[in-house]
Specification:
It is built from 11 helices and 13 strands. The strands form 4 sheets. A 7-stranded parallel sheet has the order 3-2-1-4-5-6-11, sandwiched between helices. The protein has a two-stranded parallel ribbon with strand order 7-10. It has a two-stranded parallel ribbon with strand order 8-13. Helix 1 crosses helix 8, helix 5 packs parallel to helix 6 and helix 7 crosses helix 9. The two termini are 35 Å apart. NADP nicotinamide-adenine-dinucleotide phosphate binds next to helix 1 and strand 5.
Length: 319
């Protein structure tokens, strides 16, 4: 198969580059700009000098440009790793967030619908949060976002579904990786340099190592390929739908930070738990955003690592 990855220079996109190296499929990596020097160095460190660091420029807000690449590269499936991911800034940038998180995924879905292909899209636990709950969220739980990011991501899911394309939407949470800016890298730095730190303990969820999510995406694509090989004109993928994915386990941001410091040997930093209201934010974040992964595990036979195991691996790579 020929697979196009959008947002290839973000956290998840870079992990897709690493896993695609050993794939029999042809991958085309796209983004709005070239990969940063820092990312290229990390990619080579993790996957060797022959890793594909090239970026085909593609702005996914432009449907014609997507159709051109799909045609010229004979694309069969798209993995959409691009998004407007700045949760706080989205509050003042509704139009841009809606364009990237809702209209652009619709463009990708239309392009895949044209050729009866597959769209793999990533969504978020922020589609929940408005209603109080304290059990892990299942895929059919009523969505009720609290801010612009969550609303626009929900619109993206709905737009994809409206096109009638074959799709896999993975809702994930607390994503981190060796690439770009994320909570793990921030806390790695702060616990090394600050004598004390306060971190919220009243928001609970599960971290997701982007490499584990990329692995789940590739496993799901392998499943799709088994049906795709028997493809008929009227064929539709039997497992089209929404799936939840994070690492296993549950923790607060405070617990997460404690483990980052412990695994990194940053024992001099005094880390204390605090309430969310000590760090005012433009967006109310979900207090309990644990995702129930039963459906994804059952459908694709995923074996998902416990969050501390994956954290150790990522920290080892970053240090
Ligand atoms: N990060 C999290 O904690 C988290 C949690 C739950 C779900 N998710 C979802 O997981 C997915 C992957 O997130 P991530 O953290 O890997 O994202 P990321 O690191 O922010 O990467 C997104 C990439 O998309 C690119 N992009 C921006 N505008 C584009 C456009 N018009 N056309 C094509 N590409 C464009 C960005 O380029 P520039 O950097 O140059 O703008 C960036 O390289 C997203 O759908 C996100 O909503 C993330």
């Amino acid at each position: 198969m020929n697979i196009l990855v959008t947002g290839a220079n973000g956290q998840l996109g870079n992990e897709m580059r690493i896993l695609a190296k050993n794939s029999v499929d042809k991958y085309v990596f796209t983004d709005v700009a070239d990969a940063s020097e820092e990312s290229i160095v990390m990619l080579k460190k993790l996957a060797g000098d022959d890793i594909n660091t090239e970026t085909v420029h593609l702005d996914i807000t432009k449907l014609d440009a997507i159709r051109d690449v799909v045609k010229s590269e004979q694309i069969d499936a798209i993995v959409n790793c691009a998004a407007y991911t700045n949760v706080d800034a989205a509050e003042d940038n509704y139009d841009l967030a809606e364009l990237l998180n809702a209209k652009a995924p619709e463009n990708l879905a239309i392009a895949m619908k044209d050729i009866n292909g597959l769209l793999v899209h990533i969504s978020t636990d922020y589609v929940f949060g408005g209603d109080p709950y304290n059990t892990p969220c299942k895929e059919d739980q009523k969505c009720n976002p609290t801010g612009v990011y969550g609303f626009t991501k929900l619109h993206g899911e709905q737009n994809i579904q409206t096109t009638g394309v074959d799709y896999l939407i993975f809702r994930t949470a607390w994503l981190y990786s060796e690439f770009g800016k994320n909570f793990v890298k921030t806390m790695l730095n702060l616990t090394a340099t600050k004598p004390q730190l306060k971190v919220v303990f009243d928001q609970v969820g599960t971290p997701t190592y982007a490499l584990d999510l990329a692995d789940a995406i590739i496993t799901a694509i392998e499943d799709y390929k088994m049906e795709w090989n028997l493809k008929r004109e009227t064929w539709n993928y039997s497992k089209t739908g929404i799936y939840h994915f994070s690492n296993e386990g549950v923790c607060s941001w405070y617990d997460f930070t404690k483990m980052i410091a412990e695994y990194s040997g940053h024992t001099d930093c005094n880390i204390q738990p605090c309430h969310s209201d000590e760090f005012p934010s433009p967006v109310k974040r979900p207090a309990f955003s644990v995702l129930d992964k039963t459906k994804a595990k059952g459908t694709f036979g995923l074996e998902i690592p416990f969050w501390t195991e994956s954290l150790k691996k990522c920290l080892h790579n970053v240090k």
